[in-house]
Every structure is written in C-alpha cells, then in structure tokens.
Amino acid sequence: MIKLNNKKNCNFLINDTTLRDGEQTAGVIFSYNEKILIAKMLDEIGVNEIEAGIPIMGGEEKNAIKTISSSGLNAKIISWNRANIEDIKASLDIGVQYIHISIPISDIHIRYKLNKDFDYIKNTLIDVCRVLRKEQVVFSIGGEDSSRADKNILYEIINIAEGEGAYKYRYSDTVGILNPLDIYKNIKFIKSKFKQIAIEIHAHNDLGMATGNSVAALKAGADYVSGSITGIGERTGNCALEEVIAYFKFIEKKNIDFDFKKVKKLASIIAKITKRPIPVNKPILGRNIFHHEAGIHTDGIIKNPINYEPYPPEEVGLKRKLLIGKHSGTSVIKYKLKKLGIIISDAESRALLEIIRQESIKLKRDLKNKEIKDIYHKLVL
After folding, report:
1. Which stretches of 254-368 are DSSP H helices?
2. Over the stretch 312-340, which tens digit does the pLDDT of each residue have?
3. pTM of the model
4. What CATH architecture applies to the domain 9-274?
C-alpha cells in the first residue's frame, strides 16, 4: 500500500459563517438552542473564528450571540455589523470582543443600493473605525462586493482599514463572479501591497466556483478562508469549508486540526434543521462518494484504493462500497463472491457477468448480496 505523509504546517485560519451567512439562506432559521449547539460543535471541529450573528436584530439573535460569546470557546466569536453606530452599539451591549464591519465598496452597490458616493463610504468607514478603536475592541473590515469594485477604490479601502488598525480585510466575492485564475492574481497583488493587515477570502457559489476560488486565494497568500459547513448561504450558497480544508489536508498534506467526522455529524444536524438533505454525491459529505461500480474502477480499488480514491473514506467517517451492477467486471464479481465464501473460476465469473448485467438493467439498480448468490446457485445447479 502506498503511503503519503510529509505533513506541512497550515498557513491560514478558518472563519465559519454558518450562523450568520448560512442562516441568511432563504427560509432557514436557527433557534436559540440550535445556534448554541452549532457554535459548540464548530469549536470542537476546529474552526478559528465563528461569525455568530447580527446583534442589531435584537431578541433571540442578540441573546444567542451573547451566550456564545461568553461560553469560553476556543474560537474567536465575532459579531457581524453594518457600518453604522447603532449596529456597533448593539454588539458592544453584549460584550462581544471581536467585531466585523461590512461596507459596500463597488460602484454598483454605492450608487444603486445606497444612493451615495465614494466619499461617503470612505468617511463612514473612517468614523466607524475610530469608534471601534476608542472602544478598544478587535475589529475587521469586509468590503462587500470587492470583486466588482474599482481596483483603486478597493486598494484605498484596504489602506484605510490597515491604517485604522483593523486586523483583517474580508475580500468578498459577493455574487460569485470571479474565477480561480483572476482571484489568484487579485489576492497575490493585494498581499504584495498590504503587509500589516490579514486578508480573508469570502466566496459565494453563484457560478459553482466558491471552493476553487477559495483554494486559489489561499494559494495566493490569503490568511483566512470564510465559509460555512455544507456551503449553506445566500442564493447558491457560500464556500463549503469542508471541501477547502479537505483539499489542503488530504492533497497538499497540510497539518490542519479539523475533525471531519464531527463535520459529518454537524452537517447532518444542519440538514435536518434546514430540511435540506445532503446530496448523496456531495463532496466530502455525501453517503455515496466512495461507492464504486464500473469494472475498471472496482478492479483498481481491489488492487489498491489509491487508484481511484483521493483520500481514505475513513478520514471523513465514511465506508467504501463495491457495487455489482450493469457496469461491473469479472474481477469484482469474483471478489464479492469470495467475501461471501464462494470461490469461482474465471469462466464462471464471465458467465455470471452477463446474467448480472441483464438483471441489473431490468431492475435499474445494483444487485444485493442475496441476489448475487441466488444467480450463482442457479448457474451452477
């Protein structure tokens, strides 16, 4: 068996926004107790930051964030706020130590959402940063719609955030329009230009590229990745954190403290709460992602699973399964029957294969162990 080790230290941190952006999925609501449970499980999984919600919403939302913030979790607990004093006061009221400020910076948002100009955005950001500095809280700045912002405006906003003492700037691909090549170039340049502020990638999945964009940004030097468990979020969702972390942990062999078995458990809880079942073929989480049927593939798996699996199923709490059906070959039939205590010849396996294929086509599914044994016994009798 080939073994791949050579672990390397991980050079980025994980910001989870399941409780904030995840809950902004249309029709999704987490109760107070569900929020507390999810936060605790995220902490056990190993995320570095938890974006717990929006205090200005008040009521149960505000109370849940306060409880999470005072729970003694290892992760930093962050509140999300618009760039105004009322939002900040709501966060300060509950004693949150880490505050995130989101401010629109694209011309589209400034003109058509706020009906303002860039001077207004710039002055608002400076005023808000100075309030936060006076309150001596740790804060980050998020440029909403960074990916569609004029580059000079983007750089000026990051420069203000850095100069005013923000520890992190969130580069938001708010409507998911970037591709990995472009985002790599963008983040690479930002990292070369700004040395005193951490950069976070916050990717949306409108064109199915949130995972790829997040990986590209991290390879370009981004310091944080922001996303959610299962990728739950606005419209088509956010970056699915488990996918990004799996790439770096299993493929690049980064030494990341991230418990995928607990991710699987939390993903199931989220699926139940939100009434959104996990697709059987969803990367990392789907129950069928280590099921093999095609003859060439099952033969390769029998010889060595590394032939057709990028990482062992046990790493994510799953099991391998070799199916017998229309696309099967003789080697997997011999293998399966041997597991069932029956040794057959090459000639018998070829004869069985034709019958098995026809039966699978008729039933439009793979065959169960009993059905395979019954076919064998009918053939040899």
Report:
1. 260-274, 295-303, 330-339, 346-363
2. 999 999 999 999 999 999 999 999 999 99
3. 0.94
4. Alpha-Beta Barrel (3.20)
User: What is the C-alpha separation between 71 and 43, in angstroms, rounded?
Assistant: 11
Size of the chain, expressed as the number of residues it contains: 381
Q: For 94-220, where are the alpha helices, taking DSSP H only?
A: 107-112, 118-135, 151-163, 180-193, 210-219
Rounded to whole angstroms, the Cα distance separating 223 from 150 reads: 23
CATH number of 291-380: 4.10.430.20
Give pLDDT tens digits for 120-155: 999 999 999 999 999 999 999 999 999 999 999 999
| Element containing residue 379 per DSSP (H, E) | helix 369-380
H or E element that contains 243: helix 241-246
CA distance 90 to 86: 6
Question: Looking up tokens 């001596």, which residue turns up?
Answer: 136
Based on C-alpha coordinates, what's the Rg of the chain?
25
| H-helix or E-strand spanning residue 380 | helix 369-380
| Residue 255 to residues 5, 245, 249, 311, Cα–Cα distance (Å) | 10, 10, 6, 15
Rounded to a whole number of angstroms, the distance between the first and last alpha carbons of the chain is 39
Give the pair of three-digit tokens for residue 101: 């400020």
Domain ranges of the chain: 9-274, 291-380
